[in-house]
């Protein structure tokens, strides 16, 4: 990890922030990179041409209202554009949501084991929060969230476990917290999870967040959006208008629209990743791993004969990057993103060697 350098001017409210460690990108040799849940596939051909076509017009500002993009997203989900908020990656969307709806004497709650950015946001925005422990099998205790009476963040499918709650369980949480916001982060839902988008017209306290970074092969394109009641979307737009009105750049808007337009390519890529995940999961289990049932483009696994950190280091030495968390409850586990079928077969062969 790089050392944190701090000036004497840095606002003291930030003194306890622990910076998130992004997936490493070593350049000493070629790795099979399975540590950031990127898609192994290129963006759809139409996305590439659409983005290239916008480059010559970058001297002009982009549409701050993202109108064409909002319409494409709304059409895709069978809604109207006032249900959609667009952002520079889901991460920016999440920041607006937290700024808009969290704080005000209410705590934010999320699982103790989940997407680590949330803790960072709570800290950097000075938001009171608490963590609800997952069950021993890493499943979510729905009752804990339903009785929270605080603003809820639910990552579904969860990361790094890959486990997904069905929509009826999510609805229990939303219905039980009617006077609080329930934010459901569906970054991975396209890989076999059940979306709660059908609930957004029924509950004005539900905000669903999506990204193009995983299932739409556009991590570097920085496109995310939220879906929710127009009143919630309106609040987020109010903040965006004063903080960063031109948040979604011209090329990203065009690329996003083109991605929605090529459903066949999207499906093909997602299906290939799911097939590789199922093959890899089975292969890991044959090698004696315990593997959670993932509905995401990664798997979470552990082996009784090898500690997680050792697995991580030995895989890296063999040219495979995976994610290891030196954190309570999960320090025996590794998270492996799903690449191509060939990548995953190669990783299984390497693991066989490591365990022999
Ligand atoms: C990747 C990810 C995000 C962020 O997505 P970006 O659009 O790349 O900012 C948000 N939430 C979860 C759970 C993620 O895994």
Evaluate the radius of gyration.
Answer: 20 Å
Uncertain stretches: none
β-strand percent reads 5-15%
| Helix fraction by DSSP (H/I, runs of at least 4) | 25-40%
**SSE string, helices as H and strands as E:** EHHEHEHEHEHEEEHHHEEHEEEH
Shape, please?
A: globular
Sheet of most strands: 7 strands, mixed
| Structural class estimated from helices and strands | alpha/beta
Question: How many angstroms does the end-to-end distance come to?
Answer: 31 Å
Give structural notes:
Strand 3, helix 4 and strand 4 form a beta-alpha-beta unit. The strands form 3 sheets. A 7-stranded mixed beta sheet has the order 2-8-7-6-5-3-4, sandwiched between helices. By secondary structure, the protein is an alpha/beta fold. The protein starts with 31 loop residues before the first strand and ends with a helix. The chain contains 11 helices and 13 strands. Pyridoxal-5'-phosphate binds next to helix 3. Pyridoxal-5'-phosphate is lined by residues 89-91, 115, 155, 159, 185, 187, 211, 213, 219, 224.
Short synopsis of the structure:
This protein is an alpha/beta fold. The protein has eleven helices and 13 strands.
